[in-house]
Amino acid sequence: MKQKATISIVLLSIVFFTTTALTQSILKEDFNYTTGDSLTNHAWLVSSGGTTNALLSLSPGLTFTGYASSGIGNATKLDTTGQDLYKSFPADSIGSVYLAFMFNVTKASTGDYFIALSPSISQTSYFARTFIKSSGSGFVMGISKSNETAVYGTTVLSLNTTYMAVVKYRFVASDSDFINLYIVPSGTSIGSEPASAELSYQDKTKNDATNLGFITLRQGGAASAPRLFIDGVRIGRTWNDIFYSSLVTKTSINFGTVNLGSAPKDSFYVKNTGSVAVTDSITTSNSVFTISPKTGSIAVADSQKIVVTYIPTSTITSTGKILITPLGSTAPDTVSVSGSCVQAGFAVAPKSLDFGNVYKDSTKTDTTVTVTNASTTANLVIDSVRVRSTSTSITVTPTSATVGTASTAKFTISFKPTAKGAVTGNIVFYHNAPSKQDTVKISGNGIIKEPVISVTPTSLDYHGVVVGQSKKDSLTVKNIGFDSLIISNVNSTDGAFTITPVTARLGISATQKFYITFSPTAPGLKTTSLIFTSNVSEVNDTVKASGSGLVGVTIAEARKDGNQDYIADHSVTKDTMVLYGVITTPNMGASASQTSYFMQDATGGIDVFFFGLTTTTYAIGDSVRAIGIVAQYKGLVEFTLTALDDAHFTILKHNAVVPAPKRMTLHQLVINAEAYEGQLIELDTLYKATGTWPTVFPISNVSIYLTNSSKADTLQMFLDLDAAISNAEPAYPINVVGFLSQYSSATPPNNGYEICPRFASDINHTINVSVNEPSVGVPAVFNLSQNYPNPFNPTTTLVFTVKIKGHASLGVYNILGQLVATLFDGNASAGQEYVNTFDASRLTSGVYFARLESGGMTKVQKLLLMK
Questions:
Q1: Beta-carbon neighbour count of residue 250 at 10 Å?
Q2: I need a labelling partner for 332 at 20 to 30 A (CA). Which of 256, 574, 632, 741 fits?
């Protein structure tokens, strides 16, 4: 649909207010914070940019004659390529949303937006984007509904000059939403919404906002975004909401306790601190509170007195609100009102006392408890047997009183704890008023002048940590006692756990962080007691900590099936272990809300599985470290991660060499499929045995059974919908590359083994293409990567490249310099990665060195064998 936009220049009149006041705006931001303070400390949230070029409260703030936010607090500076922030306000989806702000542009560029509104459900879906771009020696302003090209006004504004802008977004039920942009130069004024604007904009090609509930401050690209200061941000639902303010002298009126039939009065003032004269509508939410007058016209800077009369009709407590609503506003000022009515003449205040902390055997008194006889006809009689305390630690004097009509009597309450701990009780008044008896609740806490240590959490579990690495956690110690806490030592009963600091002095209610680092030097479970020695009655506080040292194993070791029962040995023992390998598949083959990647090393392949979705995207060719346990699912050997996070599934390197698929015949595969499970394989010259190729794909998972030319062997080919295989059935015979999976340990044929292509190119795969040729354009370097895993037992992998084509040798030496293994000795191509497996099963634990020599260059890596 054709874009519709109109542009016009607006003239504005009336004077702004200058008084700081309560406002009808639903959001007001004057950046009234300490200079240099981050806006993220004041309900602004980061939408992008992190901490780069953070938005701060900067001095001085902007001024604009007549604007209520002028000269209040500081401003913030929008530069380029930095932190973007957003803040919420009460969302609206009908009527209009008005946004007003002062701004001073120091530099304009090719054009970009710097402020926008968003729906309450999607902070990143921006509407009413407001733009600035350079024009001559100044700049012009523009607007767009969402992400279309902005439409700019014709008024050229000056740099380094403070202006005011108003953006109005109007929700239109029967048509596309409408946006106005008003620009106010210094010296002009606004009394009511102008009939025309700098920009009046409507784009029917873009979707409207469902509602608006966020404001975003944005720092755009360096080549396009403006640089400016912004201040005095206000959001309202009407023009008056952002330009009218009032100051109410009271926020609440409490008439206290009154006699039935009385009519006490109180009052408050409403001052017009806005820029225009307003007419107020004054209403009450409870008829027992009457108001006078009910309407009023208040000139600019003038005040109006509102009188509230409490006329109770029964002996109950009444509450309500007085609402002062300026004409044209949707956000009234409110004054809370309350009062209680009694008939008999007994009232006591306060109704409860909390003495707080009082030292044992000390006395604290309170003289605020007041009994009032509101009756005008009879005395209130409280005799000596009718005032008592329910706790021996709480006493009251006097224990009797006669209170005349319309008079009061004071009572002194004393709290003297005789032991440590909380004390509660009641002061009970028995009297001749209709309620017969009333109580005042008393509470306090007996304390002893001594420190008390509190340690949280009470235990630490580091789970699995790779041997040779460390993991840090912390404890928080708090002194919840009433004297200084002196920690003279913190000791660990196991050297794998170290603590810092080991001493501290904490005042009352003070806290101290203690950091505990677990650094396993050998595999296996480690436990310790962290013992805090302090001056707390010579009692030590103890925290338990535990963790396991982990070492890397090969995938072949993880899959080991010693008794050949097709169940991996480690899936029975549930040993936590570390695997290293290269990802060979996308996340596919798993149900919704599950993660499943296949990985390989030089010894085999395995499925890495977890119930849940990862926040990290992994790619084929990522070299990873995985921490978890071996599991068995319908015959498939899986490696289940201990937790789905970067600590348990870690990317070590991108773009590693992906193992070449093992090329074999279908017959070779089916007679020993378990040996290739989890690995990439290549099968050539296959025909369709059974199954229907889908006409529309991908909409679901599909299985096709393949056979060889002899028809003697069959295998399921599983087309996962995530692989997005083309909907055109290929001509047979076909060649297939994929990972070998297993969906059942009992289903024929072949006990449920299946080949799973990853991409459309895996079907009719081009055969005999070397997977070891170096990538074009990759610079050749001389390098020997650190082995993985390290420490290892008994196998590990080393990868090397050479810079110059020619002879290369890779050998492993013991600490005496003796050659114990030759891993490579021959010609090597420049830039090609060579993957080598070192099997140390015949060697003893200890330190070894891998040495690469080629073209006159040498590199050595230290290896650690731990059996």
A1: 16
A2: 256
Residue 129: pLDDT band (50, 70, 90) is: very high
Q: Where are the domains of the chain?
A: 4-243, 245-342, 347-447, 453-549, 552-653, 662-762, 783-865
Distance of CA 303 to the CA centre of its chain: 46
In this prediction, residue 259 carries a pLDDT of 64
pLDDT in tens, 406-420: 889 999 999 999 988
Alpha-carbon gap, residue 852 to 811, rounded angstroms: 7
Q: Does residue 775 sit in helix, strand or coil?
A: coil
Q: What is the DSSP letter of 750?
A: G
Report the 3 state secondary structure along 685-734.
Answer: EEEEEECCCCCCCCCCCEEEEEECCCCCCEEEEEECHHHCCCCCCCCCCE
Closest CA to 421 of 484, 360, 508: 360
Largest CA distance in the chain: 118
* CATH 3.30.980.10, applies to 245-342: no
| Upstream peptide bond of 659 is cis (omega within 30 degrees of 0) | no
C-alpha to C-alpha distances, 446 to 357, 388, 735, nearest whole angstrom: 6, 21, 84
Please give the residue that has the higher pLDDT: either 298 or 277. Answer: 298
Pick one of 1.10.10.10, 2.60.40.1120, 3.60.20.10, 2.60.40.10 as the CATH number of 453-549: 2.60.40.10
CA–CA separation, 177 and 744 (whole Å): 57
Q: What is the DSSP letter of 560?
A: -
What class does CATH assign to 4-243?
Answer: mainly beta
Q: What is the CATH number of domain 552-653?
A: 2.40.50.140
Name residue 423's amino acid.
Answer: V
DSSP, res 621: T
Q: Residue 409's beta-bridge partner residues?
A: 371
For residue 27, the surrounding DSSP H or E stretch is: strand 27-29
Q: C-alpha 179: how far from its chain's center?
A: 33
| Pairing verdict, β 394-397 and 352-359 | unpaired
Share of the chain above pLDDT 70, in %: 89
On whether the CB atoms of residues 109 and 241 are closer than 8 A, the answer is no
Domain 783-865 of CATH type 2.120.10.30 = no
| Residue 544: pLDDT over 90 | yes
CA-to-CA separations, 590 to 234, 236, 251, 646, in angstroms, rounded: 50, 49, 60, 20
**Structure tokens of 187?**
């010296």
How many residues would you count in the chain? 867
Q: What is the C-alpha separation between 89 and 215, in angstroms, rounded? A: 8
CATH C-level class of 347-447: mainly beta
H or E segment to which residue 594 belongs = strand 594-601
* Identical fold, 347-447 and 662-762: no
The class (CATH top level) of 662-762 is mainly beta
Q: Which amino acid is at 126?
A: Y
Q: pLDDT tens, 320-373?
A: 999 887 765 666 788 999 998 766 578 899 999 999 999 888 999 999 999 988
Closest CA to 128 of 71, 60, 199: 199
Which contiguous run of DSSP H or E holds residue 555?
Answer: helix 555-558
Q: What is the pLDDT of residue 697?
A: 61
pLDDT band at 774 (very low <50, low <70, confident <90, very high): very low
- Rounded to 5°, angle at Cα 656 from 654 and 662: 140
DSSP string computed for 476-523: EEEE-SSS-EEEEEEEESSTTEEEE---EEE-TT-EEEEEEEE--SSS
pTM > 0.70: no
